[in-house]
Amino acid sequence: MLSQKAIDIVKSTAPILADRGVDITTVFYKNLFIAHPELLNFFNHANQKQGRQQTALANTVYAAALHIDNLGVLIPAVKQIAQKHRSLGIKAEHYPIVGKYLLLAIKEVLGDAATEEIIQAWADAYGIIADVFIQMEIEMYKEAAEQENGFSEFKNFKIVDKVIESDIITSFYLQPEDKSAVPTFIPGQYITVRLTIPGETYLLNRQYSLSQAPNQETYRISVKKETEMSPNGRASVYLHQDGQIGDIIEVSSPAGDFYIDLESTRPVALISGGVGITPMMSMLDTIAKTSPTRPVTFLHGSRNKALHPFDNDVRDLMSTMEDLTYLTLYSDENQMLTKEILADKVLSNSDIYVCGPVPFMKAIIQSLYDLGFEEGHVHYEFFGPAVALELVHA
């Protein structure tokens, strides 16, 4: 139980964290990896170099400071992060290490302003927050292991097929090396792929959405070859260029809290941009197989046809469904997914799922709120560390 004095101190430091949070988390990661380089086996190195992980952690610490007296409001965010931790194999023994270097970073960045009283209050708060994560993740590991065909961490899978879907997206079909059945998942969830790449000192972990309906034999991931950012996507480039049928890679049990409500009978709107189409394909494929009469609107934005995956697949599924509205817009042809199109195509009582690049998601979700769609019916997922959407509700 956190004392009222500690609560007051932590809350009073929130403005400082808002101002210096990224400075603190940048120092934290630098010092952490110097002292414990083995932890680089758990992190996405590209996100580190681009500063995305530092910003995401700063946002999380700031939110914890604001709500330290009512952590219940953070449970949805905690669940999302805990799902990622479980899929990466992060365990209880890692939390004291993180806590130590986070407190040292606060002291290093804030200097004399970080009094012993402030550091102790944050140490107490971190212990409580860490325990929330630890207990939640213990349950997640247990659930993953105890489900049918389950396993708690990583298992060897074989690439049994490799299919080019567009100029930049290739699908990989993965089957357990021991030829056992795979655990099921809820459409929208992801797996972590852990790669040992020649020339790389550390393991590379990447999380990819499952892009087909659940079945007992294989998982399918559809990977965008990331060459437009710096650094290039080391894992995606390796899979595209070097990943071959017969190769063995490590795969986690499915994870994630972005998934379709299969119990709902409401209409569904799937709205995606770019590679954000991958979880939508799993959702659409499942609806087609289990609820073909359920009304679905599928809106997808891509730069052009050459970069657009699964167009033929969606049209094939359309022939098996009673009420599928499908629209693709290409930005190279000055076609944009506008508020007017959303108002025209998305039924007012829909369950809405959105995935894509951050600017795309900001525009779509803000438009949906402006049109009066309720927050509880609009679901979305970021690829990589979550960032603040900064949306204004109508």
Automatic annotation (TrEMBL):
Residues 1-138 form the Globin domain. PANTHER family: FLAVOHEMOPROTEIN. Residues 152-261 form the FAD-binding FR-type domain. Keywords: FAD, Flavoprotein, Heme, Iron, Metal-binding, NAD, NADP, Oxidoreductase, Oxygen transport, Transport. It comes from Paenisporosarcina antarctica. It comes from the Bacteria. The gene is hmpA. This is Flavohemoprotein. Belongs to the globin family. Two-domain flavohemoproteins subfamily. In the C-terminal section; belongs to the flavoprotein pyridine nucleotide cytochrome reductase family. It is an enzyme of class 1 (oxidoreductase). CDD domains: flavohem_like_fad_nad_binding, Yhb1-globin-like. Its EC number is 1.14.12.17.
